[in-house]
Design brief:
Elements (H helix, E strand, L loop, with lengths): L1 H4 L11 H15 L6 E4 L6 E4 L16 H13 L3 H17 L13 H12 L1
Antiparallel strand pairs: 1-2
Helix pairs in contact: 3-4, 4-5
Length: 126
């Protein structure tokens, strides 16, 4: 309840897998949706960074899914691996295109297709 009411109170939340799954879904909606939420399971023995999104078969082949979660998961991974400058560059490029190019973070409403959003982020890195 407190996470939903005051998410800014939390920097890190440690929980088991079931509650972690619930909390990451809530966090995704707070920050703009599953297409935006990157997440990390920072287990020292098997770290994993990934988008928080799920399978969306109804959008298969339509080039409308927001790729920013997957892109920002790569930024998190780079930071975790000690490449903080590269991770920050990707995150800043994502922020730049969200603020200047993207009309909406929702699938099919971005004003660009999935591949075009990826190209915009790549272009902002150059």
């Amino acid at each position: 309840m407190w996470f939903v009411k005051n998410p800014e109170w939390f920097d890190v939340i440690v929980t088991d897998n079931m509650f972690g799954d619930i909390i990451t879904d809530l966090a995704a909606m707070i920050q703009g949706g599953l297409g935006v939420a990157a997440g990390g399971n920072i287990n020292p023995e098997a770290p994993r960074c990934s988008s928080d999104g799920r399978s969306a078969p109804k959008y298969t082949g339509q080039n409308v899914i927001n790729p920013l979660a997957a892109i920002n998961a790569a930024a998190m991974m780079l930071d975790f691996l000690g490449e903080a400058q590269a991770g920050a560059a990707i995150e800043n490029a994502s922020i730049q295109i969200i603020n200047t190019k993207i009309q909406s973070l929702a699938a099919g409403r971005m004003g660009y297709g999935t591949t075009q959003v990826g190209d915009l982020v790549a272009g902002a890195l150059a």
